[in-house]
Amino acid sequence: MSGSFNAIVIEEVDGKSRAAVKPLTVDQLPAGDVLVDIAYSTLNYKDGLALTGKGKIVRKFPMVGGIDLAGTVAESSHPDWKPGDKVIVNGWGLSERFWGGYSQRMRLKAEWLVRLPAALSEKQAMAIGTAGYTAMLCVMALEHHGVKPGDREVVVTGAAGGVGSVAVAVLAKLGFKVIAATGRAETHDYLKSLGASGFVTRDELAQKGAPLASERWAGGVDSVGGQTLVTVLSQTAWGGAIAACGLAGGADLPGTVLPFILRSVALLGVDSVSAPRARREAAWVRLARDLDPTKIEAITTVEPMSNIIAVAPDILAGKVRGRVVVDVNR
Predict the structure, then answer these.
(1) Ramachandran quadrant class, 315 (left: phi over 0; alpha: psi -120 to 50; beta: rest)
(2) Which CATH superfamily is domain 128-269 in?
């Protein structure tokens, strides 16, 4: 690809952020060891905040949005990478402090790149994206704690979202009995197709209850936070664990220490942005192995980059089911 190419550039205008598709050239790209021709990116909740300006995600302007990308190395000055290598990048402050994946080309730091598993296409990798990669980090954290299939049920909150969808699919394939928490009854068939064996309503978990409720969960994956996380912790059985990775429902934790000190429940914080490369590689190897490719297709919608600014408000409003893959070349 030569000459100019398209990117979504977020700029500050009169104190407000504004996103638009604009042409760029390679000379305008930031410094980095590797130039990547991007095939696909994704739309995540954080992307929605950055594109709409409804969250203080962007730390400096102008900014190219997109916290994920998959593509092919075009040029490299680093020995780990050569032209033709298929790569993935998730997190690392893309779309916040560094230019991201909503571009047809991007120059990046070599240490940010992870090799695309041979079993996955670029489109499949972005159907998984940061959301799915985060879900797998959560599953790995639960396994490391000792949560095993055959124990009590496990719960996945925000189940119809990106993290939740992949968590449901992976946990079900591993043999867990998965209960999906969702506020949208119309997603039940979709979640059953991913492997959910039962449901709990979002409103039920959002209600303040007793500090210790009846023991139900062996573990869980929570992407909601706030009262939902407190409720799930209060219902977790002795020795269980909840992997927490999101705060769509709030950053506060309005609960007590009773689940921790009376039931030995563990709250496992999962950060996907700055996870070390070895852990990232392990997560992607597991995703290629433990996530059924047909499930990936079931959770994916593809949108052209030219339309993604219009779609961004939907993910903030909870109207997006599963994963949105962004075709940056359309």
Answers:
(1) alpha
(2) NAD(P)-binding Rossmann-like Domain (3.40.50.720)
